[in-house]
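Design job #97: recover the sequence.
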């Protein structure tokens, strides 16, 4: 399988994931992963552009909301898995 075929497969699976079709990837897990990726990308850009005038306060103010959003996405995924497990055990 060539790299181009792998990229095409990845794009097809991501499109399936966002639709109602069955996909290789989990939509909730991918959304959580994307939230953390956005955090790291934002932090990287911020560090590169503000490294000379950066202090701890600025770093805290910038990273706190990003980490809150990323953590919230992961918590929602975990809560949904717990609710599904609870519903399955109650139905048995």
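Job complete. Output follows.
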């Amino acid at each position: 399988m060539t790299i181009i075929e792998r990229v095409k497969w990845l794009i097809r699976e991501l499109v399936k994931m966002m639709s109602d079709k069955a996909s290789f990837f989990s939509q909730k897990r991918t959304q959580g992963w994307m939230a953390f990726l956005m955090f790291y990308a934002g932090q990287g850009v911020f560090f590169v552009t503000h490294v000379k005038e950066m202090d701890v306060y600025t770093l805290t103010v910038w990273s706190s909301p990003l980490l809150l959003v990323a953590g919230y996405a992961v918590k929602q995924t975990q809560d949904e898995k717990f609710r599904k497990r609870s519903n399955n055990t109650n139905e048995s």
